[in-house]
Design a protein that fits this description.
The complex is a heterodimer of chains A (about 240) and B (about 450). By secondary structure, chain A is α/β, with parallel strands linked by helices. Chain A contains 5 helices and 12 strands. Chain A has one domain: Class I glutamine amidotransferase (GATase) domain (Rossmann fold, 3-Layer(aba) Sandwich), CATH 3.40.50.880. In chain A, helix 1 crosses helix 4. Chain B folds into 2 domains: about 260 residues, UDP-N-acetylmuramoyl-L-alanine:D-glutamate ligase (3-Layer(aba) Sandwich), CATH 3.40.1190; about 140 residues, Mur ligase, C-terminal domain (Protein-Tyrosine Phosphatase, Chain A), CATH 3.90.190.20. Chain B contains 17 helices and 17 strands. The longest helix of chain B is centred in the N-terminal third of the chain and has 18 residues. The two termini of chain B are about 25 Å apart. The chains are: A alpha/beta (about 240), B alpha/beta (about 450).
């Protein structure tokens, strides 16, 4: 069986080792006998709303983000349609910001976003840099942690009632004050966490694969290394996260 | 008088630090002096009869400075921060310690370059390259480039800028500054077929269109041209041509200068060291060296510590190659493979501030060609498990990865896996490299880095 991943702007948005996330998805799929087919979707190329089971958009530097922002906005309707027809989405860092309604930069001008997630982002003075640990409860009563690294000047504000990906145990999160991190809307997951995100958070990787398979269950993997790496990363966040 | 007292105090603190076994004392005197008297750095620099030169780059600044020292140090007494202490405090410490120096030669951290340049007012500056590196510490590449632009604009009018034309951001600094000297590589035979993964600065500075490369050599360094607006690599004043790679031992090339063309054999490996040699040649010429002196210096230079060092340990050899960011590590991987792909390696990942707290960069390194030949890899350092994930998700068998977080133990394990008479390849990040060298030195196999710097 084949899983189709649409990787948005890989040439522009790849600053925090986004290919690591793709590698994790590909291998974890392969270990379950699934083949991950990754197609790059660049500027000017159309998004086929029925063409992907999972859309991925990574992080970029300000300059690259500004270069592709108009294209992201233009793809907004097709992306929303893709989500409506069942595609899962993972957006990290810059990609997370771009899926919101807009990004207001240091000089007050607004870069339009795709309008897929119920949030907007405003550039801040001080970058929020460091290790992060989150607690997520995506299913009532089932708590999981996510460990990673954040590096962003943008403050992301969720709309009232919007669900975060998790609560910050250590680190800054969306805006450094709300204690919230990321955003989750149905099958769409957005977060500032890289490191990259998925290698030491295998439950989230499997959740995305499962979402892409329309909720199908996946047999568990041993994940010993993943747990060790998670523990080290979580310890780093507890000892030094949320400070610059 | 006041400065003299402060200097005496700062110097004795450096000696105390070494006596106390707290390292080389390579930054403490400067930190003390900077606290006592922030203006002292300018005063100390101004005392040097032949002035100062500064070298900055993401990759290669330590090696470039060592090469310049080999070229100009023959005839001139240098104040040179050869131990890699390249922040304001390290530069100040070097000036404090080098009492009878004539010329200051400093490698300078990319982020510290503007402040150091403002204080020491160098007569020559060499800017090598900008790659993504330690984003948690430096922020985005564009911000460093912006600060460099401002710093270059503030340099004294008489200061000569030596700039790598092959890097769009750096080459552009020379275009806007009269009297600049550019360097770069002109050897399409050495070009990579495509830009490597996660290249930086690949969109036109002027209009944002992706550059077209007639040749890409190291990362985004090469002969670029914008197909839309025509912005292109500026003409080269100093060029490297007809390059021959000789494994891990050496690289040779034609040094093309206005004075003539010379064949140079450099005792350092890899294409990236051709860039370092060209940078050193260009800066040394600006400091008054003749082409003959340049060639003699380049050919006599030893490797900078930890950059490509061989240390004999009993009947085995340790090959130590520093990895610190994707572009640099990719070159290290390429060089190691070209020299005969190893079957065993120790890779050590720390995440102290000097390594970068954010370890995501290991996923941007093209380790895959190395994994093809490896039978076994020992991963070490504080983030050893992340390396293990990096390799296993690349398809490397989990039972061929050994996690040994302690560096001493990892070294022992690596040596155990290395046959007698063989060579063990060790790829550490910065603080892991320092610690490994301390471990090896404690066992009596090499000198401490600050002794080498003397």
């Amino acid at each position: 069986m084949k899983l189709r991943v649409g990787h948005l702007y890989p040439d522009y948005l790849n600053i925090y080792a986004d290919r690591g996330n793709i590698a994790v998805l590909a291998r974890r799929a392969a270990l379950r006998g699934l083949q991950l087919e990754v197609n790059a979707i660049g500027p000017g190329e159309t998004v086929d709303p029925a063409g992907s089971d999972l859309l991925y958009v990574g992080g970029g530097q300000d300059r690259e983000q500004a270069l592709i922002a108009p294209d992201v906005a233009a793809k907004g309707p097709a992306l929303r349609e893709a989500v409506a027809s069942g595609s899962a989405v993972l957006a990290v860092c810059g990609g997370y910001q771009l899926l919101g309604r807009f990004y207001r930069d240091r000089y007050g001008s607004e870069l339009p976003g795709a309008g897929v997630l119920p949030l907007y982002t405003v550039a801040g003075e001080r970058r929020m840099i460091g290790d992060v640990l989150l607690e997520c409860e995506l299913e009532p009563g089932r708590r999981e942690t996510v460990a990673g690294f954040e590096n962003h000047a943008g403050r992301t504000i969720l709309d009232d009632g919007a669900e975060p990906l998790g609560r910050v145990i250590a680190g800054f999160g969306n805006d450094g004050v709300s204690g919230l991190e990321g955003c989750r809307l149905g099958r769409i997951y957005g977060t500032y966490l890289h490191g990259p995100l998925l290698p030491r958070n295998p439950w989230l990787a499997d959740r995305l694969l499962s979402e892409a398979l329309a909720g199908a269950g996946l047999e568990p993997l041993p994940d010993e290394l993943e747990r060790t790496a998670h523990a080290v990363s979580a310890a780093r966040a507890r000892e030094r996260g949320g400070r610059t | 008088m006041r400065l003299a007292l402060e200097l005496a105090f700062a110097r004795s603190a450096g000696r105390l630090s070494r006596l106390a076994g707290r390292g080389g004392g390579t930054t403490i005197p400067g930190k003390i002096l900077a606290t006592l008297d922030p203006e002292s750095l300018s005063v100390l620099a101004a005392r040097l009869p032949r002035g100062t030169a500064a070298i900055s780059a993401t990759n290669g600044k330590t090696t470039t400075a060592a090469l310049v020292a080999a070229i100009v140090g023959e005839n001139v007494r240098l104040a040179h921060n050869g131990s890699g202490a390249n922040l304001v405090s390290g530069v100040a410490s070097t000036l404090i310690e080098a009492r009878d120096a004539q010329l200051g030669l400093f490698e300078v951290d990319e982020a510290a370059f503007p402040e150091v340049a403002r204080r020491i007012r160098p007569r020559a500056v060499c800017l090598g390259n900008l790659f993504r590196d330690q984003l948690d510490r430096y922020g985005e590449l564009e911000q460093i480039a912006e600060r460099w632009r401002a710093a270059v604009a503030e340099l004294p009018a008489a200061t000569t800028l030596a700039a790598n034309a092959d890097d769009p951001q750096v080459g552009d600094l020379a275009v806007s500054r009269p009297g600049s000297v550019t360097f770069g590589i002109d050897d399409p035979a050495q070009a990579r077929p495509t830009l490597q993964h996660a290249s930086d600065s690949k969109y036109c500075l002027r209009c944002g269109t992706p550059y077209v490369y007639a040749a890409a050599y190291v990362g985004h360094l090469g002969d670029y041209r914008c197909p839309a607006c025509g912005h292109a690599r500026p003409p080269l004043d100093i060029a490297g041509r007809a390059i021959e790679l000789h494994g891990l031992e050496a690289v040779s090339f034609e040094l093309v200068a206005p004075e003539g063309v010379r064949r140079v054999r450099l005792g350092l490996p890899g294409l990236y060291n051709v860039y370092n040699a060209l940078a050193a040649a260009t800066l040394s010429r600006a400091l008054g060296a003749t082409v003959d002196e340049v060639v003699a210096g380049l050919e006599s230079a030893p490797p900078a510590f930890g950059r490509a060092e061989r240390i004999a340990i009993g009947s085995r050899t340790l090959l130590l190659l520093l990895i610190k960011n994707p572009a640099g590590a990719n070159e290290v991987v390429r060089t190691v493979i070209a020299a005969g792909a190893p079957e065993v390696a120790v890779v050590a990942l720390n995440d102290a501030v000097a390594d970068g707290r954010d370890v995501s960069w290991i996923w941007d390194v093209d380790f895959e060609p190395l994994l093809e030949s490896l039978q076994r890899v020992v991963v070490s350092g504080g983030r050893a498990a992340e390396l293990a994930l990096r390799f296993t998700y690349a398809g490397f068998p989990a039972d061929a990865v050994e996690i040994v977080p302690g560096l001493g133990a990892a070294l022992d394990r690596g040596l155990e896996l290395t046959p007698e008479g063989g060579e063990l390849t060790v790829l550490p990040t910065y603080t892991a490299m320092l610690e490994l060298r301390r471990i090896v030195a404690r066992r009596g196999y090499t000198r401490q880095y600050w002794e080498r710097a003397a």
